[in-house]
Every structure is written in structure tokens, then in C-alpha cells.
Write a structure and sequence with these properties.
alpha+beta; single chain; 4 helices; globular; 10 strands
Length: about 220
């Protein structure tokens, strides 16, 4: 049996480990001017930042720190969900971090986040089903990974692919997981695309090397 290092939270690790044991190893239409004079997609910023975004503070949500930007969002926090991200590379980054971390916490967080902030798909439904089969009530905070950096893998105003780097709890040499997260601009906000098959392991890469990564996270 292959043993996975904890990489998001106890609940996600349980799902990923089960997936690993079984294995051996729609783009939206172009944006147009909306009522009120919204900016067309060709005029939106597409240059990804080479340094960590400024004006970010880290706030605890449950037991996990998440980023809040003075310019990129979220602009709306409603109970256990957060939304309202700017249509920029920085907005996509903050959305990726917020959505992933909130979908790694207890059911009061992950259920409304996955239902409301993931793009509807069969993969999203599979993710919901897997999460529902795991007890998330007693996740040990010491087993939870925290954000350590990121890398933009590709970016357009319609689709952002961001490698979010998480540091796994470890008493020895640092171990990292890079989750390749896809976000789509839908209905005026960034929304996450569920991983193939609803399995986080399908978008996860383990590494000890942060070459090409912008280090970023709570201090």
C-alpha cells in the first residue's frame, strides 16, 4: 500500500489515499460588454506577477490560514463561504487559495463551497460524494498542510491554471505538494473546476524542490 503524506487536511488525505490505493501510479464564450460597461476580456490584465502580491493578510478560517487581499478579494464573506474576486491573475490566485482551503475544512465549509463555487460537472458530483463518505468532524489541526507558494501554469481572462504549493507536516526534510488547480471565470467570479474523477490525487505532484515557485504563505 502506498502511503500519502498529508497534503491538504485530514479529510482530503483520506480521500486521496483511498484513490492512490486503487491506482498504480468547456471554455466559456468570449466576454462581451455587460450592462453597466464591464471591461471586455481583451482589455483585462493578463500579465502574471513574478512576486507575491502586495496588500495580502492571512486570516484564520477554522484552523487554516487563508489570504485576503485589499484589492483582489474576496469582497463577500457569507457564513462559511467567500466570493467576489477581481477578474485578474491576482484575483484567480486568491480565489484558488480560498476555495481550496475552505473545501478542506469541516462539512459546514466544504459542502457550500463545493456546491456553490465549483463549476457544476460530474467530477464535482463525484468529489461531493467522496467527501460525504469521510468523517470530517475531528480533523487534527496538526495534520493540516498550509500554503507555501504558487506558480501560474497558464492564464487567460477565461481560464487560470495555478499550481498551489502546500507544505506537508513533517518532522524531517520539507515535503511539498503542488496541486494544479483550474479556475474558470463564470457568472462574474472565479470558480474552481473539480479534479478529474473527483480525486485530488489526479492533480497532485509531490516534491522537495521549490524551483520556479513563488514562496507565499502565512508567517
Amino acid at each position: 500500500m502506498l502511503v500519502l503524506i498529508v497534503f491538504i487536511a485530514g479529510v482530503v488525505v483520506a480521500i486521496a489515499s483511498r484513490d492512490d490505493d486503487r491506482s498504480t501510479t468547456g471554455t466559456p464564450p468570449p466576454a462581451s460588454l455587460a450592462p453597466g460597461g464591464a471591461t471586455p476580456s481583451q482589455d483585462l490584465p493578463t500579465a502574471v506577477p513574478s512576486t507575491a502580491p502586495a496588500g495580502v493578510r492571512w486570516e484564520l478560517v477554522g484552523s487554516l490560514p487563508v489570504p485576503v487581499s485589499t484589492t483582489a478579494g474576496p469582497s463577500r464573506v457569507n457564513g462559511t463561504t467567500a466570493s467576489g474576486y477581481t477578474h485578474t491573475p491576482e484575483g484567480a490566485l486568491i480565489a484558488a487559495a480560498q476555495i481550496l482551503m475552505r473545501s478542506s475544512l469541516g462539512r459546514e465549509y466544504w459542502e457550500p463551497t463545493i456546491k456553490g463555487q465549483f463549476v457544476p460537472s460530474d467530477d464535482r458530483d463525484r468529489l461531493l460524494a467522496q467527501m460525504s463518505s469521510v468523517d470530517t468532524s475531528n480533523v487534527d489541526p496538526g495534520s493540516q498542510s498550509k500554503i507555501a507558494g504558487y506558480q501560474y501554469q497558464s492564464y487567460t481572462p477565461d481560464t487560470a491554471v495555478i499550481g498551489l504549493v502546500l507544505r506537508a507536516p513533517s518532522a524531517g526534510s520539507p515535503q511539498y505538494h503542488i496541486l494544479s488547480l483550474t479556475l474558470l471565470w463564470r457568472d462574474g467570479d472565479w470558480r474552481m473546476q473539480a479534479p478529474p474523477g473527483g480525486s485530488w490525487i489526479s492533480v497532485n505532484r509531490r516534491t522537495t524542490d521549490l524551483a520556479g515557485v513563488v514562496e507565499w504563505g502565512p508567517r
